[in-house]
Amino acid sequence: MIEKFKPRVQRKFVGGYRPKLDGPDKASGRAQYADDLTLKSRFPDMLFAKILRSPYPSARIKKFDKSKAEALPGVVAVMTYLDPEFTSLKLTNAGWTDCVDTVTWDRMMFPFRDRRVLGEYACWVGDEMGIAVAAETEDIADRALKLIDIEWETRPFVLDPIEAMGKDAPLVHPDL
Questions:
Q1: How far apart are CA 29 and CA 18, in angstroms?
Q2: Taking the model in full, what pTM does it have?
Q3: For the segment 40-80, what is each residue's pLDDT rounded down to a tens digit?
């Protein structure tokens, strides 16, 4: 339903109107958004990263072969949880995509640290884990991840919260 235009009522104190500072830029198309800042045309050497996501609710990477991915033209690096750049990092309480700001190890909000950055274990379907690819385009990074041969060890899991509290329920982090 289309309503008739109602002009704004001028108010002196409460409920007044302020002009949008970025309104003219947004209306004219000059405003800068995140996608504008990461355009390949502005940064020709920019790489795209993709991280392996777990297809299982609870799993571990037993072994993998990344040689096909590394041979794909346009792939710059394939990094894994076995690389010293990641094994040397201390445990964290924040993953890369779990909506918690990753802070330095000594300034964490929670007393527990249960996650490795790019670790070999997954705790839910879609959990980032184990392997990251850097490539010249997003499509190449996607293709490279699909070329990695992975042998998975699936672990027991429960989906019901009441069942998860049982004494025989599988632990999310058995090593803690």
A1: 21
A2: 0.67
A3: 777 888 899 999 999 999 999 999 999 999 999 999 999 99
Nearest to 80 by CA among 54, 104, 52, 101: 52
Phi, psi of 46 (to 5 degrees): -65, 140
Give the residue from 93, 90, 96, 174 showing the smallest Cα distance to 130: 96
Q: Residue 159 domain-assigned?
A: yes
Q: How many domains does the chain have?
A: 1
Token code pair at residue 117:
């950055």
Give the pair of three-digit tokens for residue 123.
């705790």
Which two structure tokens, joined as six digits, stand for 53? 């996501």
At 153, give phi and psi (nearest 5°). -110, 105
Contact 158, 123 (CB under 8 A): no
Would 30 be classed as within a structural domain?
no
Alpha carbon 134 to its chain's center: 14
Rounded distance between C-alpha atoms, residue 161 and residue 138, angstroms: 37
Asked whether 130 and 61 are in contact (CB, 8 A), the reply is: yes
Contact present, 8 and 17 (Cβ < 8 Å): yes
CATH number (domain holding residue 121): 3.90.1170.50
